[in-house]
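Lab notebook page, bench 4
Experiment: in silico fold of construct C2
Operator: M.H.
Input chain length: 303 residues
Purpose: comparison with the prior construct
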Amino acid sequence: MSLENVATVRGPEEDALAAQADAAAGGVWLRAFTRNRLAVAGLVVIVALLLFSFAGPLFYHTDQIHTRLALETLPPGTGRPLGTDDVGYDELGRLMTGGQTTLEVAFGAAAVAVVLGVLWGATAGYVGGLLDGLMMRVVDALLAIPALLLLLFLATVFRPSVLMLIIVVGVTAWLVPARLIRAEALSLRGREYVLAAKTMGVRAPTIIFRHIITNSIGTILVNATFQVADAILVVAALSFLGLGIAPPATNWGAMLSGGLNYTFSGFWWLTYPPGVAIVLTVLAFNVVGDGLRDAFGLDTRHG
């Protein structure tokens, strides 16, 4: 029997023990997370906001396409819990529609940033040597460029849309996860199971996906939650500067920007709801990220 067969063939008892160990490890961090009441509360808030934004319009029907200037800036009242905005849109329905765009872009941009960062960092950290040096110099060079300046440039060059915002925000946010996962890869590449896989001739891409990325899942999940929170703030900032999606589409940042023009006129319902939604969502994702970090026992710090 070859060395590879000896190393890879396991009996049913070994498989059962390995499965029990994996389940126990998963149960440990899950129990630790659920004991964190603040993190659980943040998760509940996130679920509630998702239901509000995506399921809410199924029960609260409003016209978010056609403007009705005769109904502009009506105060909250019967039939309109949050009144109307400056062009007659129902503000509660607008908050739901804006939440859809905000969360879609935030989750999409976070996914792009995490995927790019994980692949880049894991490859650089595992391969090492000259390739690692070159890849990380690229990261350092991009980090030297102010993120807001790069975002403004990209947002003005490309026509704003949900897909374009996801790409623009995602490609400017992958640098932090790349550095975090590289550090994980540098630590993991010296482990016995990685060295054994290399000895048996397992290809580098397989080792990177099966051993480096899989064993960095805690760091990846924690960073992903922070990436979502960051993306929400970035989308709000771009929309506040007038670089968001064109009407009739909207997001919470665009709603907040438009409502500020009426702040001193007493139309509080145009600014407070989107502002509270942004703060609440970002805070919820941050506390969930902190809870996951503590549950996994990581020292990773956001940014």
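Observations: Residues 269 and 302 are 33 Å apart (CA to CA). The radius of gyration is 23 Å.
Next step: discuss at group meeting.
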